[in-house]
Amino acid sequence: MRAGKGKMRNRRRIQRKGPCIIFNEDGGVTKAFRNIPGITLLNVNKLNLLRLAPGGHVGRFCIWTESAFRKLDDLYGTWRKPASLKVDYNLPMHKMTNTDLSRILKSQEIQKALRAPNKKISRRVLKKNPLKNLRVMMKLNPYAKTARRHATLLHDPAIRAKQLKPKKKAKKAQKPAAQKPAEKTPATE
Asked: Where in this protein does the record put region Disordered (predicted)?
């Protein structure tokens, strides 16, 4: 049984795919295998990709008859001779003549052309908010420190009052003057 709503849509039962039998001449092959569930019968002249690789999955178990297998060269040709049953058809050439990819990548020709691997790991720098972090703001705007200082001076009344007071002149460090002895007042008797 199928899981889900497909049961109501005339798709109640599902059947697993079995082997695919490919034949050239039907000498009673279709009648022999017709009642076995999951088996698909295909004529070599009418090969169907949907039957050979159902669901796009390559690797279905295919059983070829000897006559069907021999007919493949006439149908599709080889890389040396074109197909005799098709008009002007050649097999597509391989994308790679040597498919040993690991050996190709390790070869000296490829290794010379490659640049050296980057050993340095660059980690992401933590982003800091310049409006909250004065050091970061100073990098972006060197005047920010002065501007912030002016703003605090303007708004803080204690600092402003201190700023408006006349400044006292710093006293010069002098030697202490010799003190005169205090005069004695005559005592009245």
From this structure: 158-189
